[in-house]
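REVIEWER CHECKLIST
Item 1: Sequence provided? yes
Item 2: Single chain? yes
Item 3: Sequence as submitted:
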Amino acid sequence: MKILYFAWLRDKAGISECEVSPPAGTATVGALIDWLASQDERQADVFADRSVVRFAVNQDFAEADTPVGPGDEVAFFPPVTGG
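Item 4: Structure as written out by the authors:
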């Protein structure tokens, strides 16, 4: 699974992308976030306030209950505003 971080989330994570292999049972974006946050202090910091993190799975906006799988690309980014 490919993980992408954008904007200040990238700064907090210290990386812009990585490949991960979450354990079996990590079947939703929410479960993936829980697992990522448990991996190290930087990841925990990225997801400390989940209300300011948006996500996409395979370049489609997603919710915490959106399914994820091994071949997916999951992106995390701050809320987007228009003008």
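Item 5: Key structural point noted by reviewer: The CA atoms of residues 14 and 42 lie 7 Å apart.
Item 6: Recommendation: ____
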